[in-house]
Design a protein that fits this description.
Blueprint: H1 4-35, H2 41-67, H3 69-76, H4 78-81, H5 85-114, H6 118-139
Helix pairs in contact: 1-2, 1-6, 2-5, 3-5, 5-6
Length: about 160
Amino acid sequence: MSALHPLLVLHSLLRWLVLASLLYAIINAYRKWRSGAAFQKNDSIARVLTVIIAHTQLVVGLMLYALSPLVSYFWKNFSTAIHERQVRFFGMEHIFVMILAILILTIGSAKAKRKATDSEKHRTVLIWFTIALLLILSSVPWAFSPLVSRPWVRW
């Protein structure tokens, strides 16, 4: 078994935690923003926990990126690899979009924390986390993708 295997398994499992925490935070923010509810400690915990899970996923992803033979091939053979869909996806597209998504998630969390009213806090989480979720959904190598696919869960 290669050194990559445990990281791939962890990255695969963390994907679902990232998605679940993001969906929870977004749905919670939407419901509470629409109802005018107060921004409570549990809302703040959901916001922070979502960012922590996403950052953990990013660290694991960066370790995979550094160790991946596919990524190594991409950079060593850039002029030809850029034309190979799966190699380009993992060598460039996936990492760029995911870093952007986590940057947006982090900025949104920080902005929400600093908003003056509860409604503004919920609305900020809703907007920024939704943008991050859409970016993430666009760059996950889903099992059903005709372009680049990976299993639902790696074991």
